[in-house]
Design a protein that fits this description.
A 4-stranded antiparallel beta sheet has the order 4-3-6-7. α2 packs antiparallel against α3. It starts with a strand and ends with a strand. It is built from 3 helices and 7 strands. It is flat and about 40 Å long. It is α+β, with helices and mostly antiparallel strands.
Length: about 140
């Protein structure tokens, strides 16, 4: 048995997030100045697989308007009637188009796009979104 986990510590004065990702879905960093997305890959394997595993951490610096999106696989693994997954690339696209909006609107757009994608099929797994946005 294992579990995936992201641990993030925000330093608002420095505009820095230090994170460790134990095999969870990669976070997404929307960079407002360039409107680009950086995929934040795991820094270690899921917890519980190897008792001697070493977990790294990474610092991420935020400029005003930047967004950090953390999510569960219920978002990316949402399936349409043809059996196709919503996927990471669609999620990145929705964030890239909407990253300049307020956080509540970003969340609403992601959920709307996932629901439009799946049509009548219900989202079958947990759907959790956590978003940090640097305002100034």
């Amino acid at each position: 048995m294992y579990i995936t986990l992201i641990d993030a510590c925000l330093d608002p004065e420095m505009g820095k997030v230090t994170y460790a990702n134990a095999g969870h879905n990669p976070g997404l960093h929307y960079q407002a100045e360039t409107r680009t997305i950086e995929t934040l890959m795991p820094t270690g394997m899921p917890l519980g697989i190897d008792d001697e595993a070493v977990y790294g951490s990474r610092d991420l610096y935020f400029n005003p308007g930047d967004v950090l999106l953390l999510y569960t696989d219920g978002v990316t693994e949402a399936i349409d009637s043809a059996g196709e997954e919503f996927g990471l690339e669609r999620l990145k696209s929705v964030l890239q188009v909407n990253g300049q909006k307020p956080v509540v609107e970003i969340i609403a757009e992601i959920l709307r796009e996932a629901e439009n994608f799946t049509g009548a099929a219900p989202l079958f797994d947990d759907t959790t979104l956590v978003i940090f946005k640097r305002l100034s």
